[in-house]
Amino acid sequence: MVHVALMSYTPDPERTIAAAARVSTSLVGATKLTEKLTPQAVDRLLAQLIASGHFSPFEHASFTFAVEGISRVTSHQLVRHRMASYTQQSQRYVPLKEVNYVTPAAITAKPKLETKYHDVVRGAHHLYLEMLDAGIPAEDARYVLPQATETRLVMTMNARELIHVCSLRLCLRAQWEIVELFERIKAEVERVAPRLGAELKPKCYRLGYCDEAESCGIFPTATQVVGERR
Ligand SMILES: Cc1cc2nc3c(=O)[nH]c(=O)nc-3n(C[C@H](O)[C@H](O)[C@H](O)COP(=O)(O)OP(=O)(O)OC[C@H]3O[C@@H](n4cnc5c(N)ncnc54)[C@H](O)[C@@H]3O)c2cc1C
Predict the structure, then answer these.
(1) pLDDT exceeding 90 applies to what percent of the chain?
(2) Which residues are the active-site residues?
């Protein structure tokens, strides 16, 4: 099961972003600005930055998450996001003695196939252990492990990239496991930076329409909007 814990983050992240943004139009420096900014001014500034698409000040706030219980399917999708730092548990150095893996609900819903699924995954793991016992290095034995295998990692991402990645991965057209992962990441950010956390949302909420070929139904597609206007 997906587990996310916020390990550390830029202190007072929303104020840091707002102060950085103010530096560009102010005679005084960021330290003075940070002291002077009221919570209302911070809110207003963040809203202005988002509305004007001025995202670079969001790079000054970073968040480090411990992520556990995701499949290798999802970690592969996650690391496609390049504006972040990752450290993942190594399958070369860590022999996976326990069989921990993700079972999608779509498979659980079909009991006969679910049984076969468990048999194949556990069978693969059994062979993996047999190979380790035979002296095959973990880095080679792991070739037999399925993509369902659980992994853990640490990820650091700045707020600009979090906004971007959530715009893609909180979309219901993304795969359920990565949606779940970013729902938990959003909840962790909201806990310490609610204004920023509220900006972690699917792109359609910002666009006002769905730019995918098919909409999940929350917003009409661009074609439907244009069609309706004609
Ligand atoms: C629903 C969904 C389905 C997908 N399906 C597939 C698939 O079938 N096959 C597949 O291969 N991938 C797939 N992807 C991954 C996708 O193509 C991107 O690789 C991934 O979403 C990373 O996002 P990104 O490229 O916007 O940027 P990130 O790596 O998150 O970077 C953020 C932004 O920085 C800028 N940037 C980063 N690196 C560069 C660069 N080198 N040059 C210029 N600008 C850069 C871009 O503006 C980019 O948007 C899918 C993604 C989603 C959300």
Answers:
(1) 85
(2) 169
Which pLDDT tens digit goes with each residue over 117-148?
A: 999 999 999 999 999 999 999 999 999 999 99
Sheet strand arrangement including 62-71: 3-9, 62-71, 150-158, 84-88
Separation between Cα atoms, residue 144 and residue 120, nearest integer Å = 11
**Centroid of ligand 1 to alpha carbon of 150 (angstroms):** 23
Which amino acid residue places its CA nearest to atom 19 of ligand 1? Answer: 80
Candidate of 74, 83, 163 to mutate for ligand 1, largest count of ligand atoms within 8 Å of Cβ: 83
Task: Give pLDDT tens digits for 38-71.
Answer: 999 999 999 999 999 999 999 999 999 999 999 9
144 lines ligand 1 (CB under 6 A): no
